[in-house]
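Section 3.1: Structural characterization of target chains.
Under the original work plan, the team committed to producing a structural model for every single-chain target entering the pipeline before any wet-lab resources were allocated. The record below documents one such target. The sequence was received from the expression subgroup and is listed exactly as submitted; it comprises 340 residues.
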Amino acid sequence: MSKKDDKKLIVNMISESEFTVQGHGVHTAYKEITDALRKRKDIDIEVNSDRPADIVHIQTMGLYSFRHLMKKGGRKVVSAHIVPDSFIGSIKGAKYWKPLGRAWLKFFYRKADLVLACSGMVADELINDMHVPKTKVLYNTINMSRYKHSAAEKKSARKKLGLKDDDFVVMGNGQVQPRKRLDILIKAAKEMPDVKFFWVGGIPFKNLGADYNAMQNMIKNAPNNLTVTGVIPLENVRDYYVAADVFVLPAMQENHPMCVLEAAGAGLPIILRDIPQYNDTFKGDAVMAKTDDEFLELISKLRKDKKAYKKAQLDAEKIAERFDSSAGAERLVEFYRSLI
């Protein structure tokens, strides 16, 4: 091992979600990789620090982060969690100011020494469409052991959430916004009144959220067998994964969603929309729905077909193995050292 590899790296991790909105996947991704790095003896990490550092790793795209990006000292690494299309169906009026958002992201990313895209498709867009050449892929990862659980823990979580042992429970997770397609779970809940549905999430950006009033009305008029939790602390989300039988994410656009990793860690069969963003991450190991109606058909199939259910569980385990945070942290440190 070279002296360079022996050196303990000083890392400043920068995230505006520490003091702003937290009910979203970027915050979860930042927390997961930061926790994984804290466990390593070769990394000295602080969050939102101004100390001299070997690496300044930036997770969010605001002005506070930009100040750290432009400050002298340390090699700058930026995690690319979002691309311009991420704004559409997420933030109010995005179709009008998307070009401005795109220009800001391009300007921001091009200032970094290294940009880490959260999926192959994001990397392709950054390199070929936004002309950000210093881009590599680092998939989001989580501590999968945090979501593993026993039968006794499942029973306890169900009791806490007011569920019976024999209830069939379907959950989704994410911000309540048009592109996430909560309406699919609402439709399923109406057609399956004996199934319990949960959507774990809310509208963290309040009135800035896309179609805020329509989303609020959708929540208000949801059937009694579907519960929308609103924004809850990350540490409380685990109970829903432990209590659930199936995880569903009907979103029309995603990059590499943390909630899918959490569901895999909990050993849940995973139903996703068949979109190109999943081609290099989840396709083949998640159950894919090509149409809105197919989500309902697949939920029903997994409920009734024990063989299909078991296969979907085993496939989810493959996702859990690929995206555990210990492997992600090792890969990230390799990127850090390549810059020193």
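The radius of gyration is 20 Å.
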